[in-house]
Structures are given as C-alpha cells and as structure tokens.
Amino acid sequence: MTTASGHSATGPEPPAARSSGWVAALSWAAVALEGYDLVVLGVVLPSLLRDPSWGLDPGTASVISSAGLVGVMVGALGIGPLTDRYGRRRMMIGTVTAFSALTLLCALATGPVVFGFLRFAAGLGLGGVLPVAIAMVNEAKQNRGGSATTTLMTGYHVGAVLTALLGIVVIPALSWRAMFVIGALPALVLVPLLAKRLPESMPPTAEERARRGNPMTALVRGGYLRSSLAFWGTSFMGLLLVYGLNTWLPEIMREAGYELGAALALLLTLNVGAVLGLLLAGRVSDRIGVRTCVLVWFTAAAVFLALLSVKLPGVGVYLTVLLAGVFVFSSQVVVYAYVSHHYPAEVRATALGASSGIGRLGAICGPLVGGALLSAGLAYPWGFYAFAAVAIVALIAVTFVSRDVEPAT
C-alpha cells in the first residue's frame, strides 16, 4: 500500500523524516556539550579558589566567569543574524568546532589571565550554538510546539549533570584540568557527524538578503518592538538565575555548612530537577500555551528559591533543590519556545540570538551578584531571597509581550 505521495506505508521513512531525526539528535548533542562547558566552571571553582598557586578570591573568579559569558553574549548576538542570512548547517559546525578547541586549551592555562581570555574566546562559539539549534529543531519539527524546544534543552542539563558527576570523581582523582579535556573530546565524533548528517539549509539569495536588510531591524518593526523588549528583559532575569545558581550554588551551600561532596551533589540535584522540569514544561506548554506556562513556571521558581533560604534536614534540602531546578531552569527555556513561535521563520535565529545574547547580560550579572554576596558574607540565606526577587521581575516582564501580532508558523 502506498500513500498519496508515493511512499510505502510500511516502507522506510522518507528522507525528510530521517533528516528531522538527525537534526534533533545532533542538535541535542551540541547543546549537551554547551551545557557541560558552561557549567564546568562552577564545578572547578571550589578547587581553583583553594589552589594557592592561582591566588583566586570570589571577586576574581567572578570576573573570569563573566569574561566567558561576555563571549557567549557577543557570539549569540553575532551568529544569530549570520545564521538567518547564510544558513544553519555551516554555523552549527563552526560553533561546535570553535568552542571545543578552545575548551581543550583551557586545560593548559597557566594562570587566571590566560584562563579568562580562553573562556571568553570559547564563549564566542558557545553563544552561537543555542540560537542555531533551536531554530533548526523548530523548523524540523513544526508540529511539536513548545516540546521541541524543551526536549532539545534537556541536552544542556544532561551535560550539566554529567559535569557534576564527573567533578565528584575526576577532580579528586586527577585534577580540575582533566574536566576541560573531557569536555572537548566528544567533538572528535560530533563534528564529523554534523558535517555528514545535518541537511543543507537554504539561505536566502543575495537578492533576498538585500530586500530584507538587517534581520535585527525586523525585531523592532511591525508591532514587535514591545515584544522584543519584554523578551529581552525576561531573558536577562531568567539567565541571571540560571548562571548565578550554577556558578555559586556549591559555594553557597558550603557557606551554609555543607561539605564539598554534599555541595556538588546539590548542584547535581539542581540539574536533575532541570531535566525533569524541561520534560514537564514541554508537555504543559503544548496543552496550556507557552505564555501561560512561562507565567506559572516563574511563579513556582520564586516560591522554591525562597524556600532554599530555610536550612532543612536530610532529604528535605535535596527535595527543595530538586523542585527549584524543575522550575528555575525550564522557565527560561519556555521563554525561548515563546520567542521561537512569536517571530516569523526568516528572523527566528536572529530573535533567538538577540534574546539569548541580551539575556547574557543577566548571565554575567548572576555570577557577579553571587560573588559579591559571598564576599560580603551574605550569600546564605539572603542570596536565595535575591534570586526569588529576580524570578518575580521576570514574571512581570513577560506579561508585556504583545498579543497583537500573529504567532509564527
């Protein structure tokens, strides 16, 4: 039996379906590597802070963390428009190659200055991965709604979970440098697969590019200005939460009296909750809509962040951290799903890159805020109250996204 299109009903999948599967799987793997690379600094910081040869304090460590995030911001803002103008495939291959090579070089850093420069340079490639990957999976799986984005982003947190697990085992047995070597090695397999299996995207012709102009201008025309400002503000707050917690949660928990092993286990728990939250958020957003889901998720994030200020015994602290992870991290991912469905396809990567890139200012502020609170001796419990307030501001900001423009299809 054949279908109207001529394919066998029981035969192999058509090439487009197979291509869609490769896009989802390879994009997921790229985002997992990004998650590993961006979280690894939080895992190695307790060791670096106690290494007398480096002479780091929380303030200097915050500057290094922020240097990497500045690179991520610049990369996201620059690569998003390039992706819409010149195609998805080549940008994905280039970004993964660049950040993996520079991550490997981080293992050879001889001091804080070189290390900070390499983190900045790696961030340029890391910043481009997310807008390219989200644009690709949304175009390959248009019928999946918000779940396409949230499923993709489980890769980030799987990478983060692996970072925490490996940190517990690798750092005591080898050194913090081994964590960067491990983070770079998967590219030896992934980059050839990207080159072989990702479909060639169809970038606009030179004539079409000239007619459209700069993709960034489309974000502030035709009723999109209000939405863009709202998304940028929400992403600022959402990424402040993500990077502030991933960078400083182990050290904050050590300030609260937990041993290093327990503090790293809580970081692991936070990111396990993030993966669970993404799986849940995707299904919920498909049922109730991404806008409503964002509002619910930021509200719950504020509640559980405030609860972390209470020092609970035994399993209680792990449960609270798990639930905070469920809502804090997936809140920002649902924002990306909202962005992806709010703008037309021809500027989708640009819109995602702008939200991610401008939001990285919040990611830069997150480690700085945490470092300042630690230096002042206020990180526990006041840091969690500060993070809860950030979630409330994000909740308010997203309500200003315009509902007068038609969602993208």
UniProtKB/TrEMBL annotation:
Keywords (A to Z) from UniProt: Membrane, Transmembrane, Transmembrane helix
Gene3D superfamilies per record: MFS general substrate transporter like domains
Keyword Iron: no
Residue ranges constituting the Major facilitator superfamily (MFS) profile domain according to the UniProt record: 23-406
UniProt key word Cytoplasm: no
SUPFAM superfamilies: MFS general substrate transporter
Membrane association type: Multi-pass membrane protein
Subcellular location: Cell membrane
Main location, first listed in the record: membrane
PANTHER family, alphabetized: CARBOXYLIC ACID TRANSPORTER PROTEIN HOMOLOG (PTHR23508)
Record's protein name: MFS transporter
Annotated source species: Saccharopolyspora griseoalba
